[in-house]
Every structure is written in C-alpha cells, then in structure tokens.
Design brief:
64% helix; 0% strand; mainly alpha
C-alpha cells in the first residue's frame, strides 16, 4: 500500500468506516427481512420469493425509506435549530451568546475570507447566500425525496395487503391520509427526536475521551460548544 493510499484511508477513515457499516447492515436487513418475509409466506401457504424479488419489493423499500427519511429529517431540524437554540453545557450547542447567523467575520465571509476558503464563499451574491445554507438545504431536499419514496413504497405495500385481504386498494392521496402511513412515520420520527435530545443533554454531563462528540474529560459541565 502506497503512502498516498494510506493517507487517503486515514484522512477519510470515518466516512469509509460508516459507509462499510451501512452496506453491511443494509445487507443484513435484506437477508433477515427475506427470511422473515418467507416465513410469513410459508405460514400463509404462499410461495417464497428470491432475494432479488424481495429487495425490489415495496415491503423492503418502505422499510428502508422510512428509516432514511427520519434520519434526514433529524439532521435537517437539528442543523437549523442549532442556529438559534442553545443547550448550556452541551457539545451539540454553540456557546451561549452566539445564537443566530453570526457576523461575516465569524463566518469568514466577504473581506474576511481566507485563501483556502471555498470559492462560493468568496464570490458574494446569490452563490454565497446559497452556499451559506447548502447543508441544511441538502438535508431538507433529501428528507423530502426519501419521504416521497417511503410514501410511494408504503402505498404499494399497503395496497398489496388490501388485495390480499380482498379489500379495495386506495389512491396515493388516500394512503397519505391513512393511519398506517402516519403510524409508520411517527414511529420513526419520535425515535430520532429522542436520540438527538438525549445526545444534547448527555454530552453536558458525560464524557468520551478523545471523541469530537465529547468535551475534554476535565472540562466544566457548564462549558458549551467545547469538544475534545
């Protein structure tokens, strides 16, 4: 392995590790989901399906998309909430008194840019305005896309169950008003809100030595926005 490749792996180890874990867990979900689905098919006296058929089915699609859209909703809300809201002592919060969009100097904009600053941070106008909100905007767009995908997949899965029970299928808009859709959505959303809120509070009092998500072990509980 060359020094250049070692440098790439080291410099991108966090995203590469979580990318690998994502693929492993997605495969695990597909295999365990297939086994569970086929067990139900056998119990009902129906034919089993292949892995390819299962991962392209609405059953698998709705399970995946429901989780993805709740994650992107979490990030979208958290990114915008932390512009204005604070949690005293939390690593997940800006320091007290720095609420808001901050000055151009703080954000290294305009005459405060540096040679290494991104091009769109330097040019001004609509491009800088867009780039200044690009992370939250992307999370919002990804949430809407995955929400729409989960709604379509959930609709298809719901109608499959309706037909299997010899009941009439519903339209997509009809499904959006169904308890099944909102039960699935709120199930995922509430867990994300709990996780984010818990992390914000736990990081006030608890430590993880060496983690960017934790304050230095000896830092005061009241220290806000500090990371070690």
């Amino acid at each position: 392995m060359t020094a250049q490749s070692r440098g790439f792996l080291r410099d991108n180890s966090l995203s590469l590790a979580f990318g690998a874990l994502f693929l492993l867990t997605l495969v695990g979900q597909a295999l365990s989901g297939l086994a569970d689905y086929n067990a139900q098919q056998v119990a009902q006296g129906l034919a089993t399906v292949s892995l390819g058929d299962y991962v392209t089915s609405s059953t698998f699609g709705v399970d995946v998309m429901e989780n993805w859209q709740s994650e992107y909703l979490q990030f979208f809300l958290f990114i915008y909430a932390t512009v204005w809201l604070i949690q005293l002592g939390s690593t997940e919060s800006k320091p007290v008194g720095e609420e808001g969009k901050e000055s151009d100097e703080d954000q290294k904009l305009g005459r405060h840019t540096e040679p290494s600053s991104p091009v769109w941070a330097k040019v001004g106008g609509w491009r800088t305005a867009l780039y200044s909100r690009s992370l939250g905007t992307l999370m919002g767009v990804l949430f809407l896309l995955t929400w729409a995908a989960s709604a379509v997949a959930g609709w298809a899965a719901y109608n499959s169950e309706q037909l299997a029970d010899r009941e009439d299928p519903v339209s997509w808009l009809g499904y959006l008003g169904a308890a099944d859709f909102w039960n699935r959505s709120f199930q995922n959303w509430q867990s994300e809100m709990l996780a984010v809120g818990s992390m914000a509070v736990f990081s006030v009092y608890l430590r993880q030595r060496g983690s960017a998500e934790s304050k230095p072990v000896g830092e005061s509980h009241a220290a806000t926005g500090s990371s070690g």
